[in-house]
Amino acid sequence: MHRTKVKVVEEALDANNTIATANRADFDRAGVRVVNFMSAPGAGKTSLLERVIADLDGVRAGVLEGDVQGSMDADRLAHLHVPVTQLNTDSGFGGECHLDANMVRSALPALPLAEIDLLVIENVGNLVCPAEFRVGEDARVMVCSVTEGEDKPLKYPLMFRTCELVLINKIDLLPHLDFDLDKLLYNLDAVHPDVERMLVSARTGEGIEAWRDWLAHVAAPEGVHA
Amino acid sequence: MHRTKVKVVEEALDANNTIATANRADFDRAGVRVVNFMSAPGAGKTSLLERVIADLDGVRAGVLEGDVQGSMDADRLAHLHVPVTQLNTDSGFGGECHLDANMVRSALPALPLAEIDLLVIENVGNLVCPAEFRVGEDARVMVCSVTEGEDKPLKYPLMFRTCELVLINKIDLLPHLDFDLDKLLYNLDAVHPDVERMLVSARTGEGIEAWRDWLAHVAAPEGVHA
Fold it and tell me: What are phi and psi of A144, to 5 degrees?
């Protein structure tokens, strides 16, 4: 009996990755670079976007807001006059705890891709599942706030491991915390050695220039994150 | 044609609830009250347990630690000489983002139910999915830290709605935050009117007595949370 060995690429079997690849092709065709922006609830994603999104060295940015319910973050960004699209995940009982490629795909018709160079997708606040679902992004950024403790890289390793940039936020609070920054950085290097990291404070503006430059660079033609 | 109308209770069809009910029966048989303890990552669940778990007015407590990976929280509690059992959810790719009734059931043989009156199940740090899965608990407690912002009840309503007690933690940081406590309480009442809430600081010990009393009361024979 003749047998043909069929090589099946595991990734191709994964529906999410198939759709993520389709999203990515659509983004590429439109010339839009995409950042998947993730963190625990309340780490400061929206505040960090508010600081930079309207002033990215000529890069035209848009935001896709992923939330279980409501449009509070989209409302906060509205006054910045960048296009913001809201995506809610609460069609299920308690709502989905992450965005997946198909949810992002469902939002594509509502996104003004022809008018932007960069799309930041603000994911649902969660350190577990968002890391498991590619949505068609060029780069992943996560926010880790110093109020969350030094142990988070070890407890949520996949999230820290799959990011190109880690923003360590709320550093203005360091004098008021029992927090060992060196220990956090040590734990970070244990799960993702030498990943790019920035110390920032959305509240005081410290470190924000570097974050702005990084984000603008993603969308620049010569961007290293292409 | 004769037709019999069969009344099917929706809840009975749900495998998780079926197993949660079995867990509950086993806990009841052992005379153990169970608290499902939930929050976002880094809100302070373990610190709040460290403060009270070894000194509950004669109530013998045990802890079931749910984590994606590792045993850091269990290690932190080890010196308190209360029984701590570790349950990891990382059998999948990135790990499960919550405990469900079946995971808790799988831990039952490892739990010293005959030696305790109260079991605190520290859930995976996440404000979405843990709220969707009953595990056989008598009461649900969540921690919301003031560093997370005032909007969390509106963004994660199911979690706030299904709790018997909300611990508002890290109040020692209030002088250093742009945080409006009244606004948080207003949002809390919007999704769960009059839910019991306590202002606490695991760091300074403020409010900890009330939390200790509440927890001891759950396990007391005349407990209102029976």
Answer: -125, 120
